[in-house]
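Weekly modeling sync, notes
Attendees: S.R. (lead), two postdocs, one rotation student

Agenda item 3: backlog of single-chain predictions. S.R. asked that every request posted to the team notebook include the full sequence so nobody has to chase files. The rotation student volunteered to paste the first one in as an example of the format we agreed on. Action items at the bottom.

Example entry:
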Amino acid sequence: MQHTKIGFIGGGNMAASLIGGLIADGTTPSQIRVADPVTERARSLQQQFAIQLAASNTALVAESDVVVLAVKPQVLREVCQQIAAAAADKHPLIISVAAGIRIGDIDRWLGDDNAIVRTMPNTPALVQCGATALYANGRVDGRQREIAERIMRAVGLTQWLENEPLMDAVTALSGSGPAYLFLVIEALEQAGCKLGLSAESSRVLALQTAFGAAKMALESSESSEELRRRVTSPGGTTERAIGVLEEGDLRGLFERALTAARDRAQELAEELGNA
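Predicted structure, as returned to the notebook:
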Protein backbone atom coordinates (compact mmCIF):
# COMPACT_ATOMS: atom_id res chain seq x y z
CA MET A 1 0.00 0.00 0.00
CA GLN A 2 3.08 2.20 -0.09
CA HIS A 3 2.05 4.14 -3.20
CA THR A 4 -1.73 3.66 -2.99
CA LYS A 5 -3.68 6.92 -3.05
CA ILE A 6 -6.65 6.79 -0.69
CA GLY A 7 -9.46 9.32 -0.98
CA PHE A 8 -12.19 9.94 1.58
CA ILE A 9 -15.49 11.44 0.48
CA GLY A 10 -16.82 12.76 3.76
CA GLY A 11 -14.68 14.07 6.59
CA GLY A 12 -16.74 13.16 9.65
CA ASN A 13 -15.80 11.17 12.74
CA MET A 14 -15.41 7.82 10.99
CA ALA A 15 -13.18 9.28 8.28
CA ALA A 16 -11.09 11.03 10.92
CA SER A 17 -10.69 7.81 12.86
CA LEU A 18 -9.69 5.84 9.75
CA ILE A 19 -7.23 8.51 8.66
CA GLY A 20 -5.66 8.64 12.11
CA GLY A 21 -5.44 4.85 12.25
CA LEU A 22 -3.88 4.61 8.78
CA ILE A 23 -1.22 7.20 9.55
CA ALA A 24 -0.42 5.49 12.86
CA ASP A 25 -0.11 2.24 10.88
CA GLY A 26 2.49 3.72 8.52
CA THR A 27 0.51 5.27 5.68
CA THR A 28 2.05 8.62 4.75
CA PRO A 29 -0.20 11.71 4.86
CA SER A 30 0.65 12.44 1.21
CA GLN A 31 -1.20 9.25 0.22
CA ILE A 32 -4.47 10.48 1.75
CA ARG A 33 -6.86 13.11 0.47
CA VAL A 34 -10.33 14.17 1.56
CA ALA A 35 -13.30 15.99 0.09
CA ASP A 36 -16.11 17.37 2.24
CA PRO A 37 -18.74 20.02 1.50
CA VAL A 38 -18.09 21.52 4.94
CA THR A 39 -14.85 23.37 4.21
CA GLU A 40 -13.98 23.90 7.88
CA ARG A 41 -14.21 20.17 8.57
CA ALA A 42 -11.93 19.29 5.66
CA ARG A 43 -9.40 21.94 6.66
CA SER A 44 -9.45 20.69 10.23
CA LEU A 45 -8.47 17.22 9.00
CA GLN A 46 -5.75 18.74 6.85
CA GLN A 47 -4.32 20.64 9.81
CA GLN A 48 -4.55 17.65 12.14
CA PHE A 49 -3.04 15.02 9.83
CA ALA A 50 -1.22 17.04 7.11
CA ILE A 51 -3.24 15.26 4.42
CA GLN A 52 -4.28 16.60 1.01
CA LEU A 53 -7.57 18.34 0.20
CA ALA A 54 -9.44 17.65 -3.04
CA ALA A 55 -11.25 20.42 -4.84
CA SER A 56 -14.36 18.26 -5.32
CA ASN A 57 -15.64 14.72 -5.06
CA THR A 58 -14.99 14.10 -8.75
CA ALA A 59 -11.47 15.51 -8.50
CA LEU A 60 -10.80 13.23 -5.55
CA VAL A 61 -11.92 10.15 -7.50
CA ALA A 62 -9.69 11.10 -10.42
CA GLU A 63 -6.71 11.27 -8.04
CA SER A 64 -7.37 8.12 -5.98
CA ASP A 65 -6.76 4.39 -6.27
CA VAL A 66 -9.18 3.76 -3.41
CA VAL A 67 -12.28 5.82 -2.63
CA VAL A 68 -13.83 5.50 0.81
CA LEU A 69 -17.46 6.59 0.86
CA ALA A 70 -17.74 7.95 4.39
CA VAL A 71 -21.04 9.80 4.04
CA LYS A 72 -24.46 9.35 5.59
CA PRO A 73 -26.59 6.64 3.92
CA GLN A 74 -29.25 9.18 2.99
CA VAL A 75 -26.87 11.10 0.68
CA LEU A 76 -24.90 8.15 -0.74
CA ARG A 77 -27.03 7.86 -3.88
CA GLU A 78 -26.45 11.51 -4.76
CA VAL A 79 -22.70 11.18 -4.15
CA CYS A 80 -22.43 8.02 -6.25
CA GLN A 81 -24.29 9.55 -9.16
CA GLN A 82 -22.09 12.63 -8.89
CA ILE A 83 -18.83 10.64 -9.17
CA ALA A 84 -20.07 7.96 -11.60
CA ALA A 85 -18.29 9.34 -14.67
CA ALA A 86 -15.01 9.85 -12.81
CA ALA A 87 -15.22 6.33 -11.36
CA ALA A 88 -15.81 4.88 -14.84
CA ASP A 89 -12.61 6.55 -16.05
CA LYS A 90 -10.42 5.76 -13.02
CA HIS A 91 -11.86 2.42 -11.86
CA PRO A 92 -10.85 2.85 -8.21
CA LEU A 93 -11.65 0.38 -5.46
CA ILE A 94 -14.81 1.65 -3.76
CA ILE A 95 -15.14 1.08 -0.03
CA SER A 96 -18.46 2.00 1.57
CA VAL A 97 -18.87 2.58 5.29
CA ALA A 98 -22.45 3.78 4.84
CA ALA A 99 -24.70 1.60 6.98
CA GLY A 100 -27.47 -0.34 5.29
CA ILE A 101 -26.66 0.34 1.63
CA ARG A 102 -26.25 -2.82 -0.43
CA ILE A 103 -23.47 -3.27 -2.97
CA GLY A 104 -25.94 -3.77 -5.82
CA ASP A 105 -27.46 -0.36 -5.18
CA ILE A 106 -24.06 1.34 -4.92
CA ASP A 107 -22.96 -0.30 -8.17
CA ARG A 108 -26.18 0.71 -9.93
CA TRP A 109 -25.82 4.32 -8.81
CA LEU A 110 -22.20 4.35 -10.00
CA GLY A 111 -23.15 2.91 -13.37
CA ASP A 112 -22.25 -0.78 -12.82
CA ASP A 113 -18.98 -2.68 -13.27
CA ASN A 114 -17.26 -1.38 -10.12
CA ALA A 115 -15.02 -3.13 -7.57
CA ILE A 116 -16.86 -2.50 -4.30
CA VAL A 117 -16.27 -3.54 -0.70
CA ARG A 118 -19.13 -2.92 1.70
CA THR A 119 -18.18 -2.58 5.36
CA MET A 120 -20.03 -2.37 8.65
CA PRO A 121 -17.86 -0.78 11.33
CA ASN A 122 -19.23 0.08 14.76
CA THR A 123 -18.78 3.19 16.89
CA PRO A 124 -15.80 1.88 18.95
CA ALA A 125 -13.87 2.34 15.69
CA LEU A 126 -13.76 5.99 16.76
CA VAL A 127 -11.29 4.92 19.48
CA GLN A 128 -9.49 2.31 17.33
CA CYS A 129 -11.34 -0.55 19.05
CA GLY A 130 -13.92 -1.27 16.38
CA ALA A 131 -15.28 -4.47 14.93
CA THR A 132 -15.82 -4.31 11.18
CA ALA A 133 -17.39 -6.84 8.83
CA LEU A 134 -16.49 -6.67 5.12
CA TYR A 135 -18.08 -8.10 1.99
CA ALA A 136 -16.63 -7.75 -1.52
CA ASN A 137 -18.32 -8.14 -4.87
CA GLY A 138 -16.83 -10.35 -7.58
CA ARG A 139 -14.86 -7.51 -9.20
CA VAL A 140 -12.61 -7.06 -6.14
CA ASP A 141 -9.30 -8.84 -6.62
CA GLY A 142 -6.97 -10.26 -3.98
CA ARG A 143 -4.79 -7.17 -3.68
CA GLN A 144 -7.83 -4.92 -3.32
CA ARG A 145 -9.19 -7.18 -0.57
CA GLU A 146 -5.90 -6.79 1.28
CA ILE A 147 -6.06 -3.01 0.90
CA ALA A 148 -9.65 -2.85 2.16
CA GLU A 149 -8.82 -5.05 5.12
CA ARG A 150 -5.78 -2.97 6.05
CA ILE A 151 -7.78 0.25 5.90
CA MET A 152 -10.52 -1.07 8.17
CA ARG A 153 -8.06 -2.89 10.43
CA ALA A 154 -6.59 0.52 11.24
CA VAL A 155 -9.55 1.05 13.60
CA GLY A 156 -9.94 -2.46 15.06
CA LEU A 157 -10.49 -6.08 14.09
CA THR A 158 -12.01 -7.21 10.79
CA GLN A 159 -14.10 -10.16 9.63
CA TRP A 160 -14.92 -11.07 6.01
CA LEU A 161 -18.42 -12.35 5.26
CA GLU A 162 -19.21 -15.08 2.74
CA ASN A 163 -22.48 -13.53 1.61
CA GLU A 164 -23.92 -10.05 1.81
CA PRO A 165 -27.23 -10.83 3.58
CA LEU A 166 -25.15 -11.70 6.68
CA MET A 167 -24.38 -7.98 6.91
CA ASP A 168 -27.83 -7.49 8.43
CA ALA A 169 -26.93 -9.94 11.20
CA VAL A 170 -23.66 -8.07 11.75
CA THR A 171 -25.60 -4.84 12.00
CA ALA A 172 -27.75 -6.41 14.69
CA LEU A 173 -24.83 -7.91 16.63
CA SER A 174 -21.83 -5.58 16.46
CA GLY A 175 -23.28 -2.55 14.67
CA SER A 176 -25.95 -1.96 17.29
CA GLY A 177 -24.11 -3.99 19.93
CA PRO A 178 -22.35 -1.11 21.72
CA ALA A 179 -25.77 0.29 22.67
CA TYR A 180 -26.76 -3.04 24.25
CA LEU A 181 -23.59 -3.09 26.31
CA PHE A 182 -24.00 0.55 27.31
CA LEU A 183 -27.47 -0.42 28.55
CA VAL A 184 -26.00 -3.31 30.56
CA ILE A 185 -23.39 -0.99 32.06
CA GLU A 186 -26.10 1.55 32.83
CA ALA A 187 -28.17 -1.14 34.56
CA LEU A 188 -25.17 -2.30 36.60
CA GLU A 189 -24.46 1.28 37.69
CA GLN A 190 -28.05 1.82 38.78
CA ALA A 191 -28.18 -1.50 40.63
CA GLY A 192 -24.90 -0.69 42.41
CA CYS A 193 -26.31 2.65 43.54
CA LYS A 194 -29.42 0.94 44.93
CA LEU A 195 -27.13 -1.35 46.93
CA GLY A 196 -25.54 1.70 48.54
CA LEU A 197 -22.54 2.55 46.35
CA SER A 198 -21.95 6.15 45.33
CA ALA A 199 -22.77 7.03 41.73
CA GLU A 200 -19.08 7.56 40.92
CA SER A 201 -17.94 4.30 42.52
CA SER A 202 -20.70 2.37 40.81
CA ARG A 203 -19.84 3.92 37.45
CA VAL A 204 -16.10 3.26 37.67
CA LEU A 205 -16.54 -0.30 38.90
CA ALA A 206 -19.10 -1.13 36.20
CA LEU A 207 -16.94 0.34 33.42
CA GLN A 208 -13.73 -1.35 34.54
CA THR A 209 -15.53 -4.66 35.01
CA ALA A 210 -16.94 -4.50 31.46
CA PHE A 211 -13.54 -3.54 30.05
CA GLY A 212 -11.72 -6.25 31.99
CA ALA A 213 -14.20 -8.97 31.03
CA ALA A 214 -13.99 -8.04 27.33
CA LYS A 215 -10.18 -7.95 27.49
CA MET A 216 -10.06 -11.37 29.16
CA ALA A 217 -12.39 -12.83 26.53
CA LEU A 218 -10.41 -11.34 23.64
CA GLU A 219 -7.08 -12.59 24.97
CA SER A 220 -8.29 -16.06 26.00
CA SER A 221 -8.51 -19.13 23.80
CA GLU A 222 -11.48 -20.32 25.87
CA SER A 223 -15.11 -19.71 24.91
CA SER A 224 -17.21 -17.13 26.70
CA GLU A 225 -19.24 -20.00 28.14
CA GLU A 226 -16.11 -21.55 29.66
CA LEU A 227 -14.91 -18.24 31.04
CA ARG A 228 -18.30 -17.69 32.67
CA ARG A 229 -18.24 -21.19 34.13
CA ARG A 230 -14.82 -20.61 35.67
CA VAL A 231 -15.96 -17.57 37.64
CA THR A 232 -19.24 -19.16 38.71
CA SER A 233 -18.43 -21.15 41.83
CA PRO A 234 -21.09 -23.68 42.89
CA GLY A 235 -23.17 -22.24 45.68
CA GLY A 236 -21.50 -18.83 45.41
CA THR A 237 -22.67 -15.28 44.81
CA THR A 238 -22.14 -15.34 41.04
CA GLU A 239 -24.17 -18.52 40.65
CA ARG A 240 -27.05 -16.92 42.54
CA ALA A 241 -26.95 -13.83 40.32
CA ILE A 242 -26.66 -15.84 37.09
CA GLY A 243 -29.68 -17.87 38.17
CA VAL A 244 -31.75 -14.70 38.42
CA LEU A 245 -30.65 -13.59 34.93
CA GLU A 246 -31.45 -17.01 33.46
CA GLU A 247 -34.88 -17.02 35.12
CA GLY A 248 -35.51 -13.68 33.46
CA ASP A 249 -34.77 -15.25 30.05
CA LEU A 250 -31.78 -13.00 29.31
CA ARG A 251 -30.75 -15.19 26.37
CA GLY A 252 -34.23 -15.06 24.88
CA LEU A 253 -34.33 -11.28 25.27
CA PHE A 254 -31.07 -10.86 23.37
CA GLU A 255 -32.22 -13.25 20.65
CA ARG A 256 -35.44 -11.30 20.17
CA ALA A 257 -33.57 -7.99 20.30
CA LEU A 258 -31.04 -9.00 17.65
CA THR A 259 -33.77 -10.46 15.44
CA ALA A 260 -35.68 -7.19 15.64
CA ALA A 261 -32.54 -5.23 14.76
CA ARG A 262 -31.77 -7.60 11.86
CA ASP A 263 -35.30 -7.23 10.50
CA ARG A 264 -35.11 -3.44 10.74
CA ALA A 265 -31.74 -3.47 8.94
CA GLN A 266 -33.38 -5.38 6.07
CA GLU A 267 -36.25 -2.88 5.94
CA LEU A 268 -33.86 0.09 5.89
CA ALA A 269 -31.79 -1.49 3.12
CA GLU A 270 -34.92 -1.71 0.98
CA GLU A 271 -35.97 1.83 1.81
CA LEU A 272 -32.54 3.37 1.18
CA GLY A 273 -31.94 1.35 -1.96
CA ASN A 274 -35.22 2.48 -3.48
CA ALA A 275 -35.01 6.08 -2.31
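Discussion: group reviewed the output briefly. The first strand starts at residue 6 and ends at 9.
Action items: rotation student to repeat for the remaining queue; S.R. to check formatting next week.
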